[in-house]
Design brief:
This protein is α/β, with parallel strands linked by helices and 193 residues long. It has a single domain, classed as Formyl transferase, N-terminal domain (Rossmann fold, 3-Layer(aba) Sandwich). It has a 7-stranded mixed beta sheet with strand order 3-2-1-4-5-6-7, with helices on both faces. Helix 1 runs parallel beside helix 2. The protein is globular, with a radius of gyration of 16 Å. The chain starts with a strand and ends in a 5-residue tail after the last helix.
């Protein structure tokens, strides 16, 4: 058994997809960590019975916040973190102190369009191929090693909303699978069973 934490800042649809997929595995979802009090991800966690941890960056140093996040992870012996719309860059302090797998999902074909608004920017740039990337987090912005990508040819007359929906569909299909594969590898290597 491997232990997962999911970090999110927004609606939490990928968090929910991961939580539901994990139910059919031996792995555990220890908690959702959220940095925004109004994020719908917190409501999803409540409905799914997943413990939630709210951390605030307001009037605090990044290191202080990240120390609290690391304490939450240590308290639950977390083996892996999945970022699911977590809109903060983790610092080298956090990455080094955690020292384990941290995955991130990005709604574009990296290395193109890192950062925010990737779907809109890729559409406005006239990209013919749209898709998702799942990476291992490093200290850059969407610069870590690519674990998985999937894409589709952009339909000529599709709206931004239609394309966004199609990208979200890819996210919900593939991210939980890659997270579970990572947890399986951690478990096989002797995670915190």
């Amino acid at each position: 058994m491997a232990r997962l934490a999911v970090f999110a800042s927004g609606s939490g649809s990928n968090f929910e997809a991961i939580a539901l997929a994990l139910k059919s595995t031996r792995h555990t979802l220890e908690f959702l960590l959220c940095d925004r009090r109004q994020a719908f991800a917190l409501e999803r966690a409540r409905r799914l019975g997943v413990p939630a941890r709210l951390v605030s960056y307001k009037d605090r140093t990044k290191e202080d916040v990240e120390r609290e996040m690391l304490e939450h992870c240590a308290d639950r012996n977390v083996d892996c973190i999945a970022l699911a719309g977590f809109m903060r860059l983790l610092t080298p302090y956090f990455l080094n102190a955690f020292g384990k797998d941290i995955l991130n999902l990005h709604p574009a074909l990296l290395p193109k369009f890192p950062g925010v608004d990737a779907i809109r920017r890729s559409v406005e740039a006239g990209e013919k191929e749209l898709g998702i990337s799942i990476i291992t987090v490093d200290s850059g912005c969407d610069t870590g090693p690519i674990l998985f990508q999937d894409s589709f040819a952009r339909p000529e007359n599709a709206s931004l909303d239609e394309l966004t929906e199609r990208i979200h569909s890819l996210e919900h299909r593939h991210y939980p699978r890659v997270v579970i594969e990572t947890l399986d590898k951690i478990d096989a290597a002797g995670g915190t069973a």
